[in-house]
Amino acid sequence: MSVRKTLVIVYRSGWVAFFTLILLDLFAGLPFDRLWIWSPALLSLAILLGVSVRTRRARRRHPREAVEVGVPVRGRWSALNSPTDRTPSHGTHGYGQTYAIDLVAEPSEGARPGFKLLWPVVRRNRDFPAFGEQLFAVADATVVHAEDRQRDHLSRNSLLAVLYLMIVEASLRDIGGVRRVFGNHVVLDLGEGVFAAYAHLQRGSLAVRAGDRVRAGQPIARCGNSGNSSEPHLHFQLMDGPDADTAVGVPFRWRGLEVPGNGETFTAGDTVPGGLPTP
């Protein structure tokens, strides 16, 4: 087991210990100074800070060139949390997300429900055009991880639901690790130390399993709303290892199409031999 993986395990164990001590203190009363309750949390925060600083320094010393891949969706979509606007695109280098991008289907203006302040608090997944849309392999690759048994939950796109997601759900999912954060997901080995991750996939939608070889443009799954997700969308990223716990994000560019910035729409066509998208 690598040092980084060991630190991740200690980090999560620290939070589990912290919340366990909080519950014991509330319901049983602990026999020692309450300052000790915070010790596991402080340890976890120290590990998080140390790993983040080390990752940033390593990235500055060994910058990577963007890897060219195909587009993982077809049709008209828009981007959220794009690395074109900032890195890390999701506010963290954790889980190899430095250059990740979120994609939501926008088949026409107004087709995707927008954020609501109060009502409805949540929406059904089928209200979003991204739900159930096919997703495609961005290159010839080998499937190294495939999981689609987690449920697709309701949306989190109102103020109350977002607060719940950020304060409660996201924290618990982080303790649960990659599986709970990414939800149903697929990881492809593209070769030369580059791996592509597709997250928040629809339950039961995978068309591949670990060990399969896939071709560029081949359907591999459908877009869902599992894991740490506010609405049906695809979270896509490249990383330098198959385990998002220890991987470092890798920048990417799309073949024949500019990577969009936040809020920008784009249209991706079917692939033709050679991987180039058709209009």
Separation of the first and last Cα atoms? 47 Å
CATH fold label of the largest domain: Glucose Permease (Domain IIA)
Radius of gyration: 20 Å
Percent helix, as a range, is 25-40%
Summary of the model, kept short:
This protein is α+β, with helices and mostly antiparallel strands and 279 residues long.
Write structural notes for this entry.
The protein is of the alpha+beta class. It is built from 4 helices and 13 strands. It is globular, with a radius of gyration of 20 Å. α1 runs antiparallel to α2.
Task: Label this structure with key terms.
279 residues, alpha+beta, Glucose Permease (Domain IIA), two-stranded parallel sheet, 13 strands, globular, disordered C terminus
SSE map:
Blueprint lengths: L2 H25 L11 H23 L5 E3 L5 E6 L20 E5 L28 E3 L4 E7 L11 H18 L1 H5 L2 E7 L2 E6 L13 E2 L4 E4 L11 E6 L9 E2 L1 E3 L10 E4 L11
Parallel strand pairs: 1-12
Antiparallel strand pairs: 2-3, 2-13, 3-10, 4-9, 5-6, 5-8, 6-7, 7-10, 10-11
